[in-house]
Design goal:
D-Maltodextrin-Binding Protein, domain 2, 12 helices, TRAP_TAXI, TRAP transporter TAXI family solute receptor, 348 residues, ten-stranded mixed sheet
Length: 348
């Protein structure tokens, strides 16, 4: 796909700088009304209380955030859907440039699950019936675009037309009869599906229970009554939102060293302030399990450095509480260290 080639070229042409002015800490999130940007602002507020200034930026979504962390100077974090790596591997499995592009990406923290919603005309009863239909797959570079593209290709379904529209325009087009279905990836319940204009006699959430997809994504259900038009539970798949970073090497140069310190600081803030984030932050924080690492992602060493018991910031209490570590013997050493240290801070 052309977008993959552009991603690879962009990442290869733009390298990480060896020396920059005073380091800024930045996070790419999502649209102005979405959950990603609110999660980012919660983290920034917690960091500010510790004397760390982090700027949260709007973006188109997962692909833009992935690119930003890889190519933009002073951009250490981005919130992305966990299937971004699977997307790149699937569409460019034999492309060495893309292999180089995804090298070095790391996870800072797993966040919450987001359900894949597929709203369609009532006569479309299954995912396979999208073949030949007009389907909106989200704005290019958004998380919905990424997941919808991957879902359709993994399930070997060829819509007659793939339109790239945001969720609001997609709903309008569906109601007007201009499209047959649209994807939207968001934690249920998603506000857009509470619209009184969605007539349950004409439209419904299509169940997504393809076995291939359920091996890549987490099988789940959208509970009955999540939306006014929905009468029963709907089989679905979920993708996890993750806080992405880069595997900075403090021995490489000053930029890497300072960026690694920034990553360690934010990791320390999130882990030590996690109860407060769950209590006073966006409601989605209550669904976050910091030990639920998605397949294919490795924890960054700079993250683990910030979770070390000896790591301190001025806002820390004198004696952090400690808890017994969890058993994670089948994981990589970096992920095992992460689990041990997260359990020591937040409990498991």
């Amino acid at each position: 796909m052309p977008v993959i080639r552009l991603i690879a070229i962009a990442l290869l042409l733009v390298g990480l700088p060896s020396r920059l002015p005073a380091l800024e800490v930045n996070m790419l999130t999502g649209g102005p009304t979405g959950t990603y940007i609110q999660i980012g602002r919660d983290i920034a507020q917690a960091a500010s209380a510790c004397g760390i200034e982090m700027t949260v930026h709007e973006s188109a979504g997962s692909l833009e955030n992935f690119l930003g962390v890889r190519q933009r100077p002073r951009t250490q974090f981005g919130i992305v859907q966990s299937d971004v790596l699977e997307y790149l591997k699937t569409f460019a499995a034999d492309d060495p440039e893309v292999s180089r592009a995804i090298f070095g990406v790391r996870i800072a923290f797993p966040l919450y699950d987001e359900e894949v919603h597929l709203l369609a005309r009532r006569e479309i009863g299954s995912l396979t019936e999208l073949g030949g239909k007009r389907v909106s797959i989200g704005v290019e570079n958004s998380g919905t675009f990424l997941t919808a593209s991957l879902v359709l290709d993994l399930a070997q379904i060829a819509p007659g037309e793939r339109r790239m529209m945001n969720q609001d325009d997609s709903l309008k087009a569906l109601l007007a009869g201009d499209i047959d279905a649209f994807f939207y990836v968001a934690g249920a319940p998603a506000k857009i599906f509470t619209s009184p204009e969605i007539d349950g006699e004409r439209f419904h959430l299509v169940p997504v229970a393809d076995e291939v997809l359920r091996q890549v994504y987490k099988p789940t259900q959208i509970p009955a009554g999540s939306y006014p038009f929905q009468t029963g539970p709907v089989d679905a798949i979920a993708v996890k939102a993750v806080l992405m970073t880069y595997g900075y090497d403090p021995k490489r140069n000053a930029y890497h060293r300072e960026s690694c310190k920034a990553v360690s600081d934010i990791a320390h803030v999130v882990s030590t302030q996690f109860p407060e984030l769950q209590q006073s932050g966006h409601p989605k924080w209550k669904q976050v399990n910091l030990t639920d690492l998605p397949a294919g992602w490795d924890i960054g060493e700079c993250v683990n450095a910030g979770l070390e018991p000896a790591y301190r910031l001025p806002c820390d209490p004198p004696e952090p509480a400690m808890a017994a570590p969890a058993d994670a013997s089948a994981e990589s050493e970096a992920n095992r260290a992460y689990r041990r240290q997260i359990c020591a801070v937040v409990g498991c």
